Amino acid sequence: MSAIRSSLKSLRHRVAAGYVRRRLQRPTYTLISDDCWAGRLYGEYEMPCTSPFVSMGFTPCEYITVLELMREPGALDILEVSAHLWGYPILHTRHARLFGQHYKTAEDFIRKFERRRRLIDWETLRIKIDLGRRKYQPEDITRWNALRLPNSVAFHPDTPHYREAKIHHGIAVPDWIEDGSHMFQRSCRVFDVIGWLNHGVPRQSRFAGLVHRLLFDHG
Hints:
By secondary structure, the chain is of the alpha/beta class. The chain is built from 9 helices and 7 strands.
């Protein structure tokens, strides 16, 4: 039975990889997200990582400021390095603190951040935010809507509070959860992530969600 399961897993992986190759218009994209979502997407789709904003976190208000101003000259320069009370490194830039909770040393964080920063492709930049996270305030939704960023997606719980806010590029996730890694699977069940990567406009799609469940969903 274990050999059969292994064979089926291998077949599923090959079919999934072929599906991604056929549908994606580019080999990779530069992704930025406010949690683990972007890292999960790079991993699941086996895309080369061209974003410095993986394996790290932001405070919500600073994240929106980064989205607004990150193209300024020097906006991503590291100005200072400190340590969190829990021991992981923090990089300070002009507009935000970058929390390296998945890095053991500041040196490793800096090295990977600077290397990936040089790989940023602004033409393929895709932005993800999850406005359902508890630290986002009503004023953050207002700021997000005012920016009207292209090539973006904003996840949120499927409740009247968020629907009435008319969130820019909003996608309601019925089984929304705080955890960003789990939200990757849940969000991809309700919208066409590859279509969004290709064209920058998020669209809900039951068919794309079904394909994701069959090829990528781990439960």
